[in-house]
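Problem 12. The chain below contains 148 residues. Write out its predicted structure in token notation.
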Amino acid sequence: MADEQRRLRETAEELQLAVRMVVRQMRLAASEGMSLSQVAALKQLHRLGPASAAELARAERIRPQSMIATVNALRAAGYVERTPDPIDGRRQIIALTESGRETVRERGEAGYGRLAELLAERLTEAERETLREAIVLLKRLADADAEA
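Solution.
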């Protein structure tokens, strides 16, 4: 039993490392010319819709001051705009511009495109089929409502 627990632990560690490395490849492709924090802020705005810097900082688990610096850089590049909150004029609401929305779309495609390239370059068709089968298992692992 102890051997099986050790093997499960090793499998969990290797899986986490492999997933992290794949995600890093995608993020690097998606962030070309931008910092990872800028890409993350754009993605959060895409998911959340217009939000304050504090809300974005909470979503990214960073300090509000760090998010403000990121938002300032995105604003200077024309990816986001700030407007006063209609309910609380002291707050600023940050929203994607058309250029920001297009950038999120392009960056997402770049990340998925890079992953598709890696799949084609580094895996055989049989290995890609094995990966497709593993995706079903990974989704089952991730489903909190699935029965064991």
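Discussion. Helices lie at 2-30, 36-48, 53-60, 64-76, 98-122, 125-142. Students who got a different answer should revisit the alignment rule from Section 12.3.
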